Structures are given as structure tokens and as C-alpha cells.
Amino acid sequence: MIEHYEKYPNTSGFCTCGPKFAGYEKGMVIKMKKEEFKKPVLRYRMRTIIHNWPEDIGLLAEAVKAYGYGGTATNPPTENGYTGNKENIVNFAKILDQLKKKNLDYWIYDEKGYPSGYAGGLTLKDHPELEAKGFYMHRRIAYEPRHTQFVLDDESDKIIWAAKYPIDCAQINSSIIQYDRMEPVPFTKTHCSCDLATNEVFVVFCVKSAYEGSHLTHNVCSYNRYINILDHKAVERFLEVCYEPIVKDIPDAYRNAEAVFTDEPSLQVGYLHGDETWPYALAPWVDGLFETFEDKYGYSLLPYLPMIFEGRSNAYQVRIDFYELIGELVADAYVRQISEWCKAHGGRFSGHYLAEESMQAHVIYYGNYLKVLQATDYPGVDVLASYPEIYNYNTVKFAQMAARKNDTNGLMTELCPFIDRKHFNEKPLAYARGIINLLYMGGCRCINSYFAPDFSAFAPDKLHAYHGYLKQEEANQLNEYVGRLGYLLDQTKEISHTFVYYAIEDVQAKTLPSHSAILAESSATDRSLTEITRLIYENGFDYLFADAIDLVQAANSLKSGKPVISGIVVKSVILPTMDIIRSEVMDSLQKLQRAGVQVLFVDQIPKYLTGTTIPFAYYDFREESLLDTRCKENEYFKSCKAEDVLKQLEEQEEELELSVIGKDTALLKSRLEKDDQIIYFLVNNTPDEVEVKWYTEQQQSVTLWNPEDGTSRKLQEGELILIQAYRGVFLMWTK
């Protein structure tokens, strides 16, 4: 066994992952100290991601500290067998020992590249049955009697179900499946045949590997096949070959780590590139899925299996049930299983998932992303936007919802300036700072960064391969800036009385397996949500996301007083364009509106409620595109335009009024509380400095905290505030 080392004092300990790493105990009154803000300790600074270490490990660790980082996210050497090679574990122990000597914290990155789960090929070695799978539908129809025979192709594993149905062709342009008259068709693993009568449809469902065209073949790492994250055994095998070898020889590796960094595990049934078309439209699969579905919902999925792949509003409920179950299975098999393992070894599970910025991706890759994220110990995202103008506010705000629900004191972000790097290279430091402002405003409290420092300048002879954007002075400046954000925002609670609905059920209802990539822009709900939240943010207001459970709890809280979500009073609920909504949510919205909460449906009101029978919608395909079938008004609500949302927010009373002198732009802002302090985080998200006029009705004594230079001072009444390009400042006063 490699020499055991004791837990060293957490002088740079992680303060954002909850009690284990807290700089302060929950409930402790925290006073801002100017000297700690000026020189933030390492625990609040970025961690730089290092996958490969030089022979002189200590030298690179020394450089990490000299450039102002609080630590690193790292992994065992990946060559020559990864965690299956004892020598790599020995070398990993040396890496951790050098980090310990430099008082640097570390995250354990859990993969040879990404996505996490395949362990550089070790997980599937000798276990092909653990590979990611999907199932597809093959459809045949008879308008006159015929015999049909289906033979499984060489791309597929097995047939899992076959059936035939009568179809109703009486209505013009229609061929409506009679689901209640399903007749099972006998099948073997590879063959199926039957006689079809006039107006009958035959469907057969088959399983195949989910690989070609997926994220597995469109990344910058490898073309490896991957595990099924719905399968407990597959994830157990991943733990056995990737996690266990480390803890076997380095018993305290996970206990001493800030957290485990898992990277983009996902279902592989979605295709990634829109310029590719594939023969199979796949839905997620794991053996036992049909039985699990019936156990959960009390009805068999088998008669309604075609609804996963086709159909309109009459199929909505089945798809919602299906994808909700998929979300629970992913959360249980992958996230909770690894989390429990980490806790058993003194650690904590974190990391980030795939395509977090859109609800369409939330369904395709996870069934229900929020359920998956809530199962982790500390939520995280990655942000690939390289400059603020292309940043998607919802990426972090979605994950903030899980952080709020789990009370995790924020979330982790992998900072990776990847998109449009040519533009990023024009002003890398300014753009990175601009993105970081938006991350921390949205709930981020810890960064693992691929924004590379130029360590080669620290020791050119030995670290010449470690080149990057940031000079040593710049890295220290940026890390101090990040550290000041982290220090001041630690243990704060964001307070916004405006909640935007996480309308996942509408996206689940409309998600159909596809032969090509399904883009977020194809979802009207995603488009609407992006428009609404960008309008709110960029006009100087803030928002939090709320899901169905939140709104039901808000309505229930009326019994004892004001409507609240996580202790925050609800004044407005904004709902994006959607056609179906949970029945309990609609009921709760009616109660909230009667209690004085503004309930704003943008562009339309949902026509359908979950739990109700939705009849088949007859339509004329020649005229449908010209018809506006959206519901604009019902007995309780009337829809509005996105611009009307802004008017409603402008009418709400503001305790802090802001205006930018001489420019038609608004500051981004968020309101936070910490103990008896009110904190406003103000961000200039433009390439020019701005002068800001401010006013508080109560005439409080206001202190300005500037993370750019670490200064803090009281503001004089009427004094203008200068905020440099892509910078933020804090205004603070006592309640």
C-alpha cells in the first residue's frame, strides 16, 4: 500500500460545497472584513485543470500557487492503462503529495478524457453488455390484406416487442391507431412475422447500441464506446475499475479532495450534428424498462409504445411519464450510486453534465435534467461561451435551481472558452472576466478552469509544454478578482421575487426520437424561455427558476401567510410558451393569482393538462400551418407578450434605483442577503466603462466593494459610481 497521509489543515479549503468544506458554520454571523476581501484566501480562487503532469511535479504545483490559483482539478496519468496500471496510481499519489506540500486543494477528475463512465475503455472491456443502448420502432401498414416478415439487421441486438393495431381511416387524411385494440405479435430475438388485415399497422421495436452520430463520435477526446448510465451494473463496473484502484492504494484520496469532477455523462440516443441523418431514431433503453414503467405508473407502456415515436397531443401524457422515469433512473443508477460511494469514502460527488443550456437537451440526454442534478452532492455546469455577448444566462440559472433546492451554497462551473476562440483571442482576459461576472451573478461559487495560464514562462526549460493565455501577473489579478467575488458571495442567498417556470413537461411531451440532431431552437418553449430571461436580465431585473414542486409549495404556503419558495416571497410567476402543463401547477397558479401574485403566460396559455384524456386532434395538413390554434385566454388567465412582462416588472417597487449616465444600456444586477446585510451585485456587461447614478429610498449608509482592486468605502449621497468594462461591483448596506 502507498504510504497513508493524514488530512492536512484546510487553509485553502473549499468553502462552497457545504459543511465539509465550509469556511464558516451555517448560522454563524459573517462580517465582511476589508483585509480578507483585499487578499482573498486560496479557497475562493479558481482551480486550474491539469490532466498531465511533468516529471518535476513539485515545480508545476509551485507554479500553480505562484499564479494565484487555489488548487487544481486533476487525475491519475492516463497513458499505459489508466487506473488499471498500478504505476499510474503511484504517480497520482506523488501528485497529491506535492499539492499537499503546497497547501493546494484538488478535485479528482474521474475519466480519461470524457464523457465520464467508460474509464478509458476499462469499463466495457470484457463487458459489452454494459454498453449504452437505445430502442427504435419499425412501422409497416396494410391497406389491403398482406403477410409481413421482419428480420433484425446486423446493426441491432434484439427485438423487444411487436404488435399490430387496427387503424381508423374514416376521417379524411387520417390513419388513427386504435391503441386499446392492440394485438401482440409473437417474435424471437431476430425474427417476427404476421398477417395484416386491411387497415392494420404493424410495429416492431428493437434494441441497438447508441454510438454512431452521438456525442461519443463528436467530441475532442476519443471515439470510444460508452456505458449505459441507466444501468446500475454498468456504473458499478465504472466505480470498480476507475474509483476503487485509487482508494485501494491512496485511502484518503477522496476524503482529502474537495469533490469528484465527473464530466458530461449522458444518454447517447441523441444525434449531435444536424448535417447527419441516421437510419435509427432512438429512445433510451435498459433491460427491464417496460416492467419498471408499469410498476411506477400502474399501466403498461406496451400498447402505447408507438406514442414514444409518433403522434401529437394525444401522446403527450405517455411521453411525460416516460421521460420522467428516465430522469429518475439516470439519477439513481449514475448519480446517486457514485455519490453514495464517494460519501462512503469520505468524499463528495460533483462535476457537470451535457448541453445544460436548453430544456430540449435536458430531456434528450437525461429525461429530466433537474432530477439528475438534484441527486448530486454539489451541482455544476460547464460554460463554453468565450465572451459575454454569446453567453446563455440560463445555463447557470437552471443549475442554480438545484443549488437552491438542495441548499448547497452555489454551484461549480467548468470555465472553458471554446466557442469562437478567434474572437476570444482578441481580448482573452477581459472576456474571461466578463464571463466570470455572469457566472457568479447566476449562482456559481467555484470555478475549475481550462482558461490556460502560461506556466511555460515560470520555468521555460522544464514547463515549456504548459503554455497558455495568462501571464503570471494577469493570472494573479484574475484569481484575486475571482477570489473577491467568492469571498463576498460566500453563504449569500439570492433574493428575487420573480420566478420563471421550468416547463420541462411541455418539452418532454413534444420530444420525439429523431434520425438527426434535435436542436434547442426547434423547441418553442426553449425559444420563448431564452427570449423572456434575456429580456429580464438585460433590462436590469433578475429571476429565479421554479419547477412544479416549487409552485405547488408556494400555493400551499398561502395557508400560513404569504406565498414563498425556499423562504422567498413570490410576487410574479412567468410561464413561457407551452401547450401542456401539470394539472397541479395550473391549480396552484390560480390560487397564487387570487392571492395577488402576478401570473404571466407569454404568448399563449396551455390547452392541455396532465392527467386528463387528450383526444386525437383531427387536422387538415394543407391548412394547419396557416391556423393559429394557440389558446390566448381562458376563464382564469389571459396571455401576454414578452414586452408586457417587462412593463409588469417595471411597476414593481425597487429599493435600489440605477441609471447609466449618457448611455442607453442597463446594468445587470442581482440582490442577495447574508445575515443582516443586503448586497447588490452590479455588472457592467459592455466593452465600455459606465458611470452609474444610484438612489435608495431609505437613504441607507451604502458601502461600495470593488473586486477589481479590493477596495471598500462608504458612498456619499449622490456620488456617481464608475464601473469599468466587463467588471462588477457590490453595494452593501444593513437591513
Please tell me about this protein's structure.
This protein is of the alpha/beta class and 735 residues long. Helix content is 29%, strand content 22%. The strands form eight sheets. An eight-stranded parallel β-sheet has the order 13-11-3-2-1-16-15-14. Strands 4, 6, 7, 8, 10 and 12 form a six-stranded antiparallel β-sheet that branches. The radius of gyration is 27 Å and the shape is globular. The termini are far apart.
Please state the CA-atom Rg, rounded to the nearest Å: 27 Å
Annotation field: number of helices: 19
Q: Strand percentage, roughly?
A: 15-25%
What proportion of the residues is helical, as a percent range? 25-40%
Multimerization state: single chain
Total number of beta strands:
33
Based on secondary structure, the structural category is alpha/beta
Q: What is the rounded distance between the termini?
A: 56 Å
Order of strands across the main sheet: 13-11-3-2-1-16-15-14
**Mean pLDDT over the residues:** 93
Shape: globular
Tell me about the biggest sheet?
Answer: 8 strands, parallel
Low-pLDDT runs: 1-29
